[in-house]
Design goal:
Amidase signature (AS) enzymes, Amidase, alpha/beta, AS_sf, Amidase_dom, globular
Length: about 475
């Protein structure tokens, strides 16, 4: 084939394998060549398993010839370096974990293995998943493939950048307050934060056990649906894992969205949004209307309380997880990560317990107020401002860096506290040439509906087909 195989979608790669037009070896070599060519400007990979993944690709090709069938057989992926595999080091973006081989394997990796997926290597991330920008003092900052002086978003910075730069066909990230949706939005790819407990967290680095969600980033909504089909489902090793049937996410994409009612905020989530972002959001809603959806104005509750409650849980739990290392190895944290963790140590227990005890009531009230009986899905911004630069969000810079960083998660962190599913979908570009995205938020376990809506949108638009110049120019 004359085309650059690294530029295929995951679905396109799967079609090529199943038809016999391409081999896993060819797909893998294309990704490895892309990494060699482009990742020096992006810094998304921490390690690349050249020989191991090529051997695995050859084995996948032999297995396919022998009649084996699996949904991801022979497809190269790469994941945020926080998923443990027995005997292998996962750095978690830190130097503290750099010499600690894992004693177990994450459930999500086991499920991907069973589905036949390959691993190209480990992806960079914000240190201990602390930060929405992509800075990392230990392994170097990750750069946005669209404009390398800008942030890729975080903490799943490597996944967002690697998928956008066409270095792998999909990736696992994690989302505690923004960390799948913001990188997806900044890098112009699709990211799904599922319902809390929908995907197992067993064997993944914890940041905040009350907020952490595992989920996929990929080039299209259809690609995310394929990954969700493999990842979702009950895991008895994870006490927070939901015991609920897993729908056919791929089949759901074709069910149609005519008549679905989309809630559009009249204030709060609509406030503080730059004009060019607001214009792109409005146009995306008009496209969904063309697909047969109905737009309904809703008065979504103020996200500030939800943000503060979610932040309280994250601070308290992260500080608890890191208490021993903060005492024994404080010098091994970067300054801004250590400062954030130490702030959690000063958090009164009464505030943490209040945030925890209020959660059930707050979630019920939010669903009742925002969705009512008239709304199926909410349409909200991911970022309210154009993607900032790495310099503007560097904690060593002077000025209002803290405010800029906090603003990045203003519209995403509340959804983690609520535990609701949310899908980030690209919908345009800013005047500066950086991606813009919206997020669809649903009721618990409504991932299939969100994916169907996102897919319908992508059937009528071309944003997901756009590529950074570094990809298009080869």
């Amino acid at each position: 084939m004359g085309q650059d195989l690294s530029r295929l979608s995951l679905f396109g790669a799967r079609q090529g394998l199943e038809s016999g037009r391409v081999t896993s070896r060819q797909l893998t070599e294309a990704c490895l060549e892309a990494i060699e060519c482009r990742d020096g400007r992006v810094n998304s990979f921490l390690t690349v398993e050249y020989q191991a993944v090529l051997r695995a690709a050859d084995e996948a090709d032999q297995a396919r010839k022998a009649g084996k069938r699996a949904p991801l057989l022979g497809i190269p992926l790469a994941h945020k370096d926080m998923y443990y595999r027995q005997g292998r080091v996962s750095t978690c973006g830190s130097i503290i974990m750099a010499d600690q081989p894992a004693t177990t394997t994450a459930t999500v990796l086991e499920r991907l293995d069973q589905a036949g997926a390959l691993e190209l290597g480990a992806l960079n991330m914000s240190e201990f998943a602390a930060g929405p920008t992509g800075h990392n003092a230990h392994y170097g900052d990750v750069h946005n493939p669209w404009h390398t002086e800008h942030i890729p978003g975080g903490s799943s910075s490597g996944p967002g950048a690697a998928v956008a730069a066409r270095l792998c066909y999909g990736s696992l990230g994690s989302d505690t307050g923004a960390s799948i949706r913001v990188p997806a939005a900044c890098c112009g790819v699709v990211g799904l934060k599922p319902t809390y407990g929908r995907i197992s967290r067993y064997g993944a680095m914890p940041r905040s056990w009350s907020n952490d969600c595992m989920g996929p980033l990929a080039r299209t909504v259809m690609d995310c649906a394929q990954l969700m089909q493999v990842l979702a489902g009950r895991d008895t090793r994870d006490s927070s894992s939901l015991d609920a049937p897993v729908p056919d996410y791929l089949a759901a994409l074709e069910q149609g969205v005519k008549g679905l009612r989309i809630g559009v905020p009249t204030r709060h989530f609509a406030e503080g949004v730059d004009d060019e972002i607001a214009e792109a959001l409005t146009h995306s809603r008009q496209i969904l209307e063309q697909a047969g959806c109905r737009l309904i104005d809703v008065d979504v509750p103020d996200p500030k309380l939800l943000y503060d409650l979610g932040e309280t849980l994250s601070k308290g739990e992260a500080s608890t997880i890191h208490r021993r290392w903060l005492q024994q190895r404080p010098q091994d944290y970067s300054d801004h990560v250590r400062t954030r963790l130490e702030a959690g140590q000063a958090l009164p227990a009464t505030r943490y317990l209040e945030a925890l005890s209020l959660r059930g009531e707050v979630v019920r009230n939010f669903i009742a107020d925002a969705f009512k009986a008239t709304v199926d899905v909410l349409h909200l911004p991911v970022l309210g401002r154009p993607v900032p630069t790495l310099a503007e969000t560097d904690f060593h810079s002077s000025g209002t860096v803290g405010e800029t960083v906090s603003a990045i998660t203003r519209f995403t962190r509340p959804i983690n506290y609520l535990g609701l599913p949310a899908l980030s979908v690209p919908c345009g570009f800013s005047q500066g040439g950086l991606p813009i995205a919206f997020q669809l938020v649903g009721r618990p376990l409504d991932e299939d509906r969100l994916l169907a809506l996102g897919h319908a949108y992508q059937q009528l638009t071309e944003w997901h087909r756009m590529e950074p110049e570094m990809v298009a120019s080869g």
